[in-house]
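Sorry to interrupt, but I need a hand with the structure work. It will help me judge whether the discrete encoding reads sensibly. Write everything out right here, beneath this request:
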Amino acid sequence: MDSFLITVDGTGHEVSAGAVRQLLDASARFWLDLAGLDKSTADALLLDTFGFHPLAVEDAVSFGQRPKVDPYDDFTLIVVYGATGSGHLVEVHCFYTENYLVTVHHDACPELTGLAKRLEQRPDQRPDHVMLLYRVVDALIDGYFPVLDDLDDRIDALEDAILQRPTDQQLGQLFDMKRSLIALRKVVTPQRDMFATLLSGTGTLPGMTADAERYFRDLYDHLIRISDLVDSYRDLMSGVLDTHLSTVSNRLNVVMKQLTIIATVFLPLGFLTGFFGQNFAWMVAKITSLPIFLGAGICLPVAVAVALVVAFRRRGWLTADGTVPPARPADRPQLTRQQRWHLLHPPKEPHAEHSS
């Protein structure tokens, strides 16, 4: 991970304590990005060169902070989170003043690197300092949308796969995505509340103007959208989990029904074969002819099995959806003689021949 130091005119400088001190002495406006900050670099730059408060420097070294805005005497510490293309959350600490901006992050952040390249290549797009802070936070927040779009596609694909054939691997993927959503919600919700507090007038940024406030309000709107998307995806994933459990339960019920039908069909067959397989002398001596063997030994078990299959089918136990086949005419309820007479001779309505 490479750090960079650029001034408002788009000129790049060496990231060192001497270069930073020269820019501070000249009251130049610049943006310093520190990637992978260790304690020695933090002490040399943040404490000695910039003179930031030790508590703010300690937070920048240890990380794991919640989104917040901490105003100090000569600078404001803003902790924001962004998302990379792989869905990994990036914590960024912004030390903001009217003359310079220092961003500190431990993980790689392609969004900030791309923003710095655009500022160097497009002189007409170089904003003033409060708008530079907006551009940095906007680049971080915009990283959430591709991650959420990818998560939406994965949820749809997973739901389709579950409806076709649920597996244990799908359940693991579902819980992984659910944990990712929980991690997003833990940083998006307080970040939204942070900007709501900032825009309500409770906390102010140096150099904030009415026009710049409109842009920061747009960031707040984006965070509201992201928060709503996270909540809706969480509910959707709960529905997908219910779909997986219900699908597995339905498949188990179908298997148990099939096994029960097979066992029920073979139950009378086992009884018949066991009954006629008894070695009593009378039975062995009497059941000797071929017709008796064909009738009692073959036709009777077959007839019992066919009768059971017909009964199961009429009850809808052999169909995939459990629907009962339409009843035959013989199965329809019979009408009494009086009901048939009323159907054939409906009552006549009175004529209006005496109305005159």
User: Anything to note?
Assistant: The beta strands are 4-7, 12-13, 30-35, 68-71, 76-83, 89-96, 100-105. Residues 210-276 form the longest helix (67 residues). The chain has eleven helices and seven strands.
